[in-house]
Backbone:
């Protein structure tokens, strides 16, 4: 599972200052968040409902508690009409300034205690503030200008070319665009696969992101959920069984370059080999690679499965607000030019073509990405990958030394451990939980000092949770016996 990692050198084929978070926050300025309520639900992850997934094998279900977030209506900020004399008194402006100031303090506090979700919060885009006065919209095809002149296509195509070099595809062979989020990248990649193979069956591991199964429902696709290994990686033995049962129909596969909960990386080469051994020629399958987080980390880790369009894949997507770091959700989606014609259509209103999911697209996001890629470059990302992997190993080792069950996949910076018993602690550190496990995603902004504060608090709290006959849970079913240090497996 875990082992020594080697950081790769800069790929030969490829040519933020953060604001200090102060400790002297004013407690009254931080909006208090009541604990979420607990509901009882059937077994499975607290994600998209799977009840409507037709043709899927359902595991035996058992009742367990799922914690839902608070109802925001209880703390929402109402929109009120200005008073007749507000223009002269300035009361409304003063009220709004106060609200924003308190909200900023809340953001500072919540950022200080953020560990569970894969967002790189270490960035500084102050130089781009001069562009916030413009409504920049890249509606339509990024490679063909429309009649709307306030766009950033020149930045967008520059970013796309950068990723094309990373994933080894020539400029004249790819098509892509900057999406509004990682989910849109998955929706687009799977849509292209469905359009190439209208009668194809979608195959995805059970630990794939919920957006993959959302796509299956949206597009009314037959979908097969494939079992996973204990690491979270797709089980190619089960994939083989399901492929052979449906040899008469083309296969559309989602390959995870880092699963949501365990950070597991599917073996792309083994998936392709399994398809070929089951009799699927390259013109009878389509592979979409969901590289939301690790798609940008993998090129710098030796022995990692290589994502490349030199292999028979159809599309790759990555999130821009995760490892890269961006103040708004965004992503990058690339596919083969040969595939995109099935989606493209001319739009006279735009004087352009369109093959995207959305119509209007955020024109600021490409500029943010272009700015960071230029500032950091491949060497900068290489250093950040090395830092994340090193700090992830530090966290895993300290958890194990404290007698806490923990797992870290070799190619990952996601540390999985036993779920804390206290939901207030979970919310304080914004941990992502599923069943009996939680995880910390070690990003470039997560320092050793921050991990130490978290670990010390966890160990202290844990001493009060487990006393007398109350024992830590066994999570061997989630992380394997070798990573579980419960009373049974210690």
Residues:
């Amino acid at each position: 599972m875990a082992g020594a990692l080697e950081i790769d050198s800069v790929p030969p084929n490829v040519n933020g200052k953060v604001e200090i978070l102060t400790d002297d926050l004013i407690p009254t300025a931080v909006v208090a968040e009541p604990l979420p309520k607990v509901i009882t639900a059937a077994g499975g992850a607290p994600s998209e409902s799977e009840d409507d997934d037709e043709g899927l094998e359902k595991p035996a279900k058992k009742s367990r508690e799922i914690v839902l977030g608070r109802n925001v209506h209880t703390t929402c900020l109402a929109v009120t009409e200005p008073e007749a004399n507000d223009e002269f008194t300035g009361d409304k402006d003063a009220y709004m300034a106060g609200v924003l100031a308190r909200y900023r303090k809340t953001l500072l506090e919540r950022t200080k205690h953020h560990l569970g979700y894969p967002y790189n919060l270490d960035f500084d885009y102050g130089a781009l503030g001069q562009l916030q006065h413009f409504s920049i919209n890249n509606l339509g095809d990024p490679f063909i200008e429309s009649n709307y002149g306030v766009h950033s296509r020149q930045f967008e195509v520059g970013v796309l070319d950068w990723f094309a070099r990373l994933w080894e595809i020539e400029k004249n062979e790819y098509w892509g665009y900057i999406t509004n989020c990682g989910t849109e990248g998955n929706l687009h990649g799977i849509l292209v696969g469905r359009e190439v193979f209208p009668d194809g069956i979608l195959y995805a591991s059970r630990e794939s992101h919920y957006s993959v199964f959302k796509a299956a429902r949206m597009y009314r696709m037959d979908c097969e959920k494939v079992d996973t290994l204990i690491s979270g990686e797709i089980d190619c033995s089960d994939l083989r069984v399901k492929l052979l049962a449906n040899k008469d129909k083309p296969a559309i596969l989602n390959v995870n370059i880092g699963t949501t909960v365990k950070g597991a990386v599917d073996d792309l080469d083994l998936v392709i080999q399994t398809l070929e051994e089951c009799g699927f020629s390259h013109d009878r399958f389509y592979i979409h690679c969901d590289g939301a987080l690790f798609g940008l980390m993998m090129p710098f880790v030796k022995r990692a499965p290589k994502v490349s369009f030199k292999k028979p894949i159809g599309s790759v997507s990555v999130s821009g607000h995760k490892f890269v770091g961006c103040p708004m959700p965004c992503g990058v989606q690339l596919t083969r030019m040969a595939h995109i014609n099935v989606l493209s259509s001319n739009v006279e209103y735009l004087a352009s073509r369109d093959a995207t999911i959305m119509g209007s697209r955020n024109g600021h996001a490409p500029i943010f990405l272009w700015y960071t890629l230029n500032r950091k470059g491949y060497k900068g990302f290489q250093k950040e990958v090395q830092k994340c992997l090193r700090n992830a190993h530090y966290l895993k080792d300290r958890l194990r030394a404290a007698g806490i069950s923990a797992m870290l996949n070799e190619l990952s910076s996601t540390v999985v451990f036993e779920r804390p018993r206290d939901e207030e602690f979970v919310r304080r550190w914004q941990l992502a939980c599923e069943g009996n496990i939680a995880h910390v995603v070690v990003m470039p902004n997560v320092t050793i000092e921050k991990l130490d504060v978290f670990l010390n608090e966890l160990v202290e709290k844990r001493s009060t949770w487990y006393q007398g006959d109350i024992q830590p849970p066994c999570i061997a079913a989630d992380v394997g016996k070798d990573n579980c240090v419960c009373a049974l497996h210690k």
Observations:
- The CA atoms of residues 231 and 264 lie 6 Å apart.
- Residues 12-31, 38-61 have pLDDT under 50 and may be disordered.
- The domain at 379-483 is CATH 3.90.1150.10 (Aspartate Aminotransferase, domain 1).
- The first strand starts at residue 38 and ends at 41.
